Amino acid sequence: MLSDRYVSAPEDLLQLDQTVVAHVLSVDESADGRKIRVSLKHSVAEVSATQCLSPADFLLDYFGELEGAAGSAELGEIGRRTTVKVKQKQPYGVLVTLAGELGAISADASGFITTDQAKDHLDECKEGTVLPACVLDVDPEKNIVDYSLRSALTTDSAASAVSAKKSKTTKRRGGKDAPDIRQALADALRKQHDTPVVVEVVKEDYLVLSLPAFDNAIAFAATKSYNDRSKPFMRFKVGQRLSGTLVRVEANKRTLVMLQAGSDVATAPKQVADGGSAGKRAVKEPVDRSISFFEDYQPGRVTQAKVMSIKGTQANLDLAANVKGRLHITELVDGPLKTLVKSPVEAFAAAGVRTGDTIEVKVLGWHDAKVYKFLAITHRTSPLKTVIETTIRPSKLAASNEADGSAKSLSWKNVEPGRVLHGFVKGIQEASDYEDATVQVSLGLSLVGHLPLLAATSSYAVATHPARHFFPGSSIEVQVSSVDKKHRVVHLAPHGQYIAGVDRPTLSVDQLVPGTRVIASVANITPAVMFTHFYAASSLADDSAGPQVLRIQGK
Questions:
Q1: Gap between the Cα atoms of 10 and 204, Å rounded
Q2: N- to C-terminal Cα distance for the chain?
Q3: Helix/strand/coil for 25
Q4: How far apart are CA 553 and CA 555, in angstroms?
Q5: What is the mean pLDDT of residues 239-245?
Q6: What is the number of other CB atoms lying within 10 angstroms of the CB of residue 10?
């Protein structure tokens, strides 16, 4: 009930002693309770419903404190076009000085252009070069001016409704030189019509915007509100297109815009222009024609995907031309495969998944394409950097169309000793100076367990040539032996049906008597003694408490 969007930590959103707007949901008047349950969501706790505040009050109060009652002549220069001289080029931006004339801004004012605002002329930004610029913002106290070199801001916009229809006497825009722009803004303020805006600069407490419908006049919006003090840098991006309503147009003060509710989503302008609505990202050529936006791929959604390739333990999918997906081998079936396979491709084929096929899948969630870290439902990572995790397990496809959180639950943090799992052989990890050889078993989307090779078989032939028997993609049933949380390793023991063609070892400590044959590994040899080690279970693998696989030293 804190926010309409995902909040990882309440302290990112709220501060102690912060004034908030709350909507009362319920009142517990019992002696044990005496609590009032409230919501701080913008969609529920509307400022206008308080009858004492208006949605623009926070915005006006904030900039009123920032500018003072009278404003300043320097602020009146915002939006003016001029020229600047490059002083120094840095990785984070360009330092400049004023080369042209701006009546209220002194020639010794420090000028700065961010990399985003300089990219149109970045190659020309050499020391001493004079370039056309537009004033984005002014800090009169610190004598600092923010400029832009973007062509859209430094030249007249032929597409501007104001320039094309109303302006006949001036080609310059902003400040005193374009009263027609000022009048058009005043008319829009009076009519309270929504207008599109483009984010030019994201600052700690406010946004610098351009207004395309008004020859890219410069305006400002707050990044915070009564119920939200979070950092703006993940919610707003340079170039992002939003919608808002003008709330102040005054001389020697910043022009202010109130953003529409729900506008704080990082939507690239090109994606919106390609057919997406505000806040949504359009998909191109979706396999499932009922899909229009990336946001339609919500967890629990059953949709269609095309299998592009099968590599390792995953099938790479295309859900649309600009949307990638993944089907992990552990999301093929509910139990072990009934077919003996010798490769992951055969395992996928046994489940009816082949390269080139169009298959029905269910969305489990989204993860980062590089690190496979699951993302929040409200994430705003680019679709090109996001992979949609899917499943075709019959039990999940048949379940109701709700988000299934089980995809994210299986990890070293919560898997308990004794738990029986169906997995797939990922490969053989060779022995090293510090670790014994193990059979690696894929147990979940990001969970791999380790089955000691000498605990995996009672056959000398299998132990000496494991790759001939533990084929990648083979279905295997195992039981969690222990979890090393310090090193984040899950140790396994054989269980149940185990793996086709390999006998499940049943040797336990209780069975160790003189004459018992074991498969051992040589650890060290001295002139007098050969040191070995082998594995045995402290209890049988079908013990519900879970077997403890012990590494026993011998000589």
A1: 19
A2: 65
A3: strand
A4: 7
A5: 90
A6: 10
